[in-house]
Amino acid sequence: MQLLRLALKNIRGSGFRSVAIFLAVMGVAGFLLATTIIIDGARYSLDAGLQRLGADIVVVPKGAEVKLETALLMGKPTDSWMPRSNTDLVAQIPGVAKVSPQVYLMSMYDAPCCAVSEMFMVVFDPATDFTITPWLEHNLGRPLKTGEVIGGRYVYVPEGAEGITLYGYMTHLVGNLEPTGTGLDQTLFMTLDTALQMSATSEDLAMMPLNMNPDTISVIMVKTDPGMDPHKVAIAIRQNTNMVPLESPNLFGTFRSQMNGLLWGFFAITLIVWAVTMIIIGIVFSMAANERRREMAVLRAVGATRNFIFRSVLTEAALLALGGATSGIAVAAFLLYVFKDMIAGSLKMPFLFPSWASFIGLFSAGVGLAIITFTLAALLPALRLSRQELAIAMRE
Q: In whole angstroms, what is the distance from residue 200 CA to residue 167 CA?
């Protein structure tokens, strides 16, 4: 208790120095946490998006690979099409267990039913679907009826409206999917029957008709047989068709490469800043040690041991690190949560805020790392103060 009181007294008595160290630790710890959450949030978002897709392989028209990744990642429409009959060609490939086509319709801009500026619309086939149907069975307990839709986290029914009106056609939102941080969050899913009725209604009621050709599709979702290597199935699809198979683990490959580059850039900057801050804090404590030599000598004279002096300096450093790291991480987490959509848009990457369990782990690790490293920065000054000769220090 005496040790803690002495450390707190020294912190209060050296206001400018303590505030400078506190702010330095706060800035570095906050920056480190922000970097970690952004990168981990992007990775978690990609994994959640791939899990939501539920397909081992996504088959697209040749030349549409980048367009597809953009459509899935950021919710952008694609104008690449292929005949629906291609679904049968893929189904005949050995090792293919299930196939289901999807159609990517034109996006709705500034729709009153979406929290972001662009709403992506996807048509699925309930007879063969294995991506949306499992969610419906678990949460709704039945298939979608004609006129019903499922939305991502950003899709909602406008206040005062009975449903969502699209192209003059009234649809009913029956649920929202779990957030993924990708373009799926701003996506509205509907059945082929609903899309065809919407297309027919749009010719009379919409300013711009929705052209829906039932014989064309955008992509084919593929589920492989249990125990079958999806890579071998993808090779067979590539060799036997004029389409391009994209294996789920390889989706968003370009983005993953860019993200890894961003990751190493962020961490390199963080390590440099962290090292420089440790050096500066070490210098500050060294200067403080020179100023407090007589003070510590007086403590020695009234009975304080060398170990007590040593631990008091380290306790002071640990308390400043604890306060600075806790404040910095809390502020960084708050700003990230409030501006997460703006950050994702500016960095052009998906972002999903981590779960509370993950965040608590990151918070604890960040505070612990700050305490350890910045206490080590004060180690040499603490040793110097504790080992000084009492008589010499009293004469200075």
A: 10
Query: Which stretches within the chain are classed as H helix?
Result: 2-13, 15-53, 65-74, 86-91, 133-135, 192-205, 230-240, 253-291, 293-301, 306-338, 340-347, 356-377, 379-387, 390-395
Task: Name the pLDDT band for 395 (thresholds 50, 70, 90).
Answer: very low
Looking at every residue in the chain, the average pLDDT score rounds to 79
63: region left, alpha or beta (phi > 0 left; psi from -120 to 50 alpha): left
- And the tokens for 95? 């090792």
Tokens of 37: 């959450």
Going by the DSSP 8-state scheme, the letter that residue 208 receives in this structure is S
Instruction: Characterize the bridge pairing of strands 243-247 and 169-176.
Output: unpaired
pTM of the entire predicted model: 0.66
Helix axes 253-291, 65-74, angle to 10 degrees: 50
Contact 351, 42 (CB under 8 A): yes
- The label of the residue with tokens 């391009």 reads 244
Q: Which residues are 176's β-sheet partners?
A: 151
Residue 36: which pLDDT band, with cuts at 50, 70 and 90? confident
> Radius of gyration of the chain from Cα atoms?
30
* Strand pairing category for 169-176 and 148-151: parallel
| Contact of 278 with 377, CB cutoff 8 Å | yes
Q: Say if CB 238 and CB 101 are below 8 A apart.
A: no
Among 77-86, 151-160, 166-175, 292-301, the range scoring the smallest mean pLDDT is: 292-301
